[in-house]
Amino acid sequence: MDTDALTAGLLQELRATRPYPALSLTMPTHRRAPDNAQDAVRLRNLVAEAGNRLEGDPRVTREAGAAVKAQLQRAAEEVDQRRALEALVILADAEGYQIWQLPRTAPERVVLSDSYLTRNLVAAKAGAQLFWVLAVSAEHATLWSGTNDDLRGEQIGGFPLTAPHEAPNPQREERIGDTPSTYSSEDARNFLRSVDEKLRAVLAADPRPLFLVGLAPALALLDEVGESAKSAIGRVAKGTTPETTAPELLKDLRPALEDRRKQAAAEIQGRLDNARGSRSFAGGLDEVWAAVREGRAGLVAVEEHFQQTVRVTDEHLEPVDTAGTREVDDQVREDIVDELIEAALDSGCEVAFVADDSLADHGRISAVLRF
Prior knowledge:
The protein has helices at residues 8-15, 37-56, 62-78, 119-126, 170-176, 186-205, 216-225, 246-277, 285-293, 336-346; strands at 22-28, 87-92, 97-102, 109-113, 130-136, 140-147, 150-154, 161-162, 210-214, 234-237, 281-283, 297-303, 310-313, 316-319, 332-333, 350-354, 365-369. By secondary structure, the protein is of the alpha+beta class. Helix 7 links the parallel strand 9 and strand 10 (234-237). The model is unreliable at 167-180 and 324-328 (pLDDT under 50).
């Protein structure tokens, strides 16, 4: 599954206590050759490690261990390396399994517990920057789900839509002297009203930033006959067809997406600057971790690819070398940044991902404090 499938209800279900052992397997992956050749080998090794952990855990009965290993093996065989992103997460218990492909890296690990490890899913979801794209004309409307630099056509809420076609009417054309302009016809207005109604329902069910793509007359008419499109944060005056592919559409969208990223980054930077001026600022992993744990963080800004392995000592975080730290003790946290993000979101804190090196002077992570 992809991160846009991680709803609040599903997250609550994944976090629920379940019979021991609930197994969580995470590993970094690669999108393209030749780097992705190592992914299958790494997965086999982790599956073997998981099997050894199950067999060596005195809390795991032989029946339970065999059932979980069987589910894990099925999941590993089902993994499609062609769909690989930055990380793979497999969740398995005696009853079933889930496979998640994430656009955010995760450490290589196997965890046995009485609930699934969700921090990598939550962090990936928070950094996914989901948005909607509506490609529209007087005759068709398609809806696309965007995640960072990826697009996927959606068949939800009645989309895609195609305007009904009527047979030519020579008598009508003779009466009005000519065929009506595409965007001045009542048929076009009615069709775009229908598009507006369906788009409004989609945005109500899943609010996201909206981008519009279409010829200028189509976008103007959509504004005229409805309300939902007026909230769009970006518009691209370019015609599309029902056969327009995701790469073609993404190419046209890139300038608008980049403008939006720059605008959002400037807004976040402005809030951080104001916080420094009012002494409501925390910088660095240790300070931000403490602020999140105490519920004082209102906004956490973190560099996109910042990861840190730490040891928790006396309620503080001590960075450690990643070599030889895996499973050394329960105070070592390989994915402390993702754990922090999950805790921040759980406390109602806003999380924003910013460009690498933009917070280099503040330990790669900063926070605006509530108090």
